[in-house]
Design goal:
By secondary structure, the chain is an alpha+beta fold. Helix content is 31%, strand content 28%. It contains 2 helices and 3 strands; from the N terminus they run ββαβα. The N and C termini lie far apart (39 Å).
Length: 75
Amino acid sequence: MPQFTYVARTASCQDVTGSITAGSKRETLLALAERSLYPLHVEAARGSLSLGRWRPRRRIKPQAVATNLAQLADL
């Protein structure tokens, strides 16, 4: 499961920082709400497995993108 770091505020207006393990950013926000914390900033921790972001390993050639879009338009 990915690790998320957060900055949140308590009901007494004190800032709290920490990390939490959750399946997604949404689950992290729900977990913070259960603790009566108001999230100010939540992001995936560095080095953690982020399932929500996919990045291609190599660049796709513009000609290949144009060809695929033309074929899609024909459909």
